[in-house]
Amino acid sequence: MNPDRLREILQRVAEGGLDPAAAFEQMKRLPFEDLGFAKLDHHRALRSGLPEVVLGTGKTAEQIIAVASRLRDSGQQVLITRLTPEVAAAVTAAIPELSWVPDARVAFWRGATPRSVGRGTIVVAAAGTSDIPVAEEAALTAELIGHRVDRIYDVGVAGIHRLFAHHERLREASVLIVVAGMEGALPSVVGGLVDRPLIAVPTSIGYGASFGGLAALLAMLNSCAAGVTVVNIDNGFGAGVAAAMINRA
Question: Which domains does the chain have, with CATH numbers?
Answer without folding.
Answer: 3-109 (no CATH), 121-246 (3.40.50.1970)
